[in-house]
Amino acid sequence: MFFELLRVSLGTQDGLTKTPTDKEWEELFEMALKQSLAGMMLGGVEKLLKSNSVAKPAILLEWIGEQQYIESQNKLQNKRAKELYEIFKEGDYRSCVLKGQGTATYYDRPELRQSGDIDLWVEGDRDEIVRFVQSKGVHVESVDIKDSAMWFFDDVMVEVHYRPNCMFNPFVDKKLQTFFQEQSERQFAAFDEKLGFAHTTIGFDLVYSLVHIYRHIFSEGIGLRQLVDYFYILKHSSLEQREQTFETICSFGMKEFVGGIMYILLEQFGMSKEYALCGVNRQHGEFLLKEILIGGNFGQYDTRYNFAGKDKKFRRGINMLERNMHYVRLYPSEVLWSPVWKLWHWCWRKQKGYL
Questions:
Q1: What does the pLDDT profile of the chain (355 residues) look like in tens digits?
Q2: Does residue 331 belong to any structural domain of this protein?
Q3: From CA 198, how far away is CA 187, in angstroms rounded?
Q4: Alpha carbon of 152 to those of 69, 148, 160, 163: distances in Å?
Q5: In a domain, 14, yes or no
Q6: Same domain, 178 and 269
Q7: Can you name the residues that pair with 292 across neighbouring β-strands?
Q8: Which of 94, 215, 226, 237 could anchor a disulfide with 241, C-beta 3.0 to 4.6 Å?
């Protein structure tokens, strides 16, 4: 029933096959909250109400309240993203927003996409960027190879990226960083006049969003919101862009993973086959879907693993490695390179004085 309502919200199904009870509506709302999809799925409820397919759910007012909060957060995020862009522009740094408020523009109703933190890709030397930010009186936390948390605002979390993402496997990572470098000029130039900041393009997002989802398997976990994002990215892409994306993704050794994502989008989301990057991989798809439904958005509700606190970094690292061994059968490359990369990364940070 949850996926039926999701398909109604995405416009790939007209109605529900049965009318939910009040208890079932509550469960649907809780599941939407767990997957950070409450806003856009209320759009589906509104469609059903307009067509008189269902009576008003008892939970409707609470759901509307959540939607209003999501809309207000999106306005705040757009405001903060514009301010961030201007701050770095004044320092002669080019930047662009990754995911988030840029991805929301692909939605039928951008204001209903639930936002998270702001991820900003900034062009330039890592140390110089950190010094520039600190000169503004902004606290910089945990500098690493990829990004840093920077406390520009009290109401919105910001991650400044020195590179959009990375892979544990160094040979794959080299290909990935080459892709980012080749795409960088166009991304920093993709200024959105309406929003007041630059954000990444469809051609870039087709690859980057898949890499982002893939990498999250080995950290917090993934959720349905990230797949809904990709559903809308695919809907705005061209056949040529999709063909190029599949070729690029295969060069990263992610063919089976992408087949799993296509399984979820085609079989559960009802996406048209014309938008698919490739055929489905049922084994990977069913595995990923199970992980998503257990963990919720970014794995926040996954109770299978008992992680040490963030202050116990070594123990937490061991916990994460134990967790990732769960994925070694399907994704051996990233899992097996993980401890090597993390040891190298710790030494790199130590040498740079970031620890």
A1: 999 999 999 999 999 999 999 999 999 999 999 999 999 999 999 999 999 888 899 999 999 999 999 999 999 999 999 999 999 999 999 999 999 999 999 999 999 999 989 999 999 999 999 999 999 999 999 899 999 999 999 999 999 999 999 999 999 999 999 999 999 999 999 999 999 999 999 999 999 999 999 998 887 778 899 999 999 999 999 999 999 999 999 999 999 999 999 999 999 999 999 999 999 999 999 999 998 888 655 555 555 555 545 555 655 666 666 767 778 888 999 999 998 999 999 999 999 999 8
A2: yes
A3: 7
A4: 22, 12, 10, 19
A5: no
A6: no
A7: none
A8: 237
| Domain range enclosing 225 | 202-304
CB 249 within 8 A of CB 277: yes
Spatial CB neighbours of 93, under 8 Å, sequence gap ≥ 6: 122, 123, 124, 129, 132
pTM to 2 decimal places: 0.92
Query: Is residue 127 a part of any domain in this protein?
Result: yes
> In this structure, are residues 84 and 90 in contact, taking their beta carbons and an 8 Å threshold?
no
| Same domain, residue pair 158 and 255 | no
Q: Decide if 78 contacts 199 (C-beta within 8 A).
A: no
In a shared domain, residues 236 and 278: yes
The tally of domains found in the chain comes to: 3
**Is residue 128 situated within a structural domain?**
yes
Same structural domain for residues 174 and 142? yes
Closest by Cα among 96, 71, 74, 77 to 157: 77
Same domain? 141 vs 172: yes
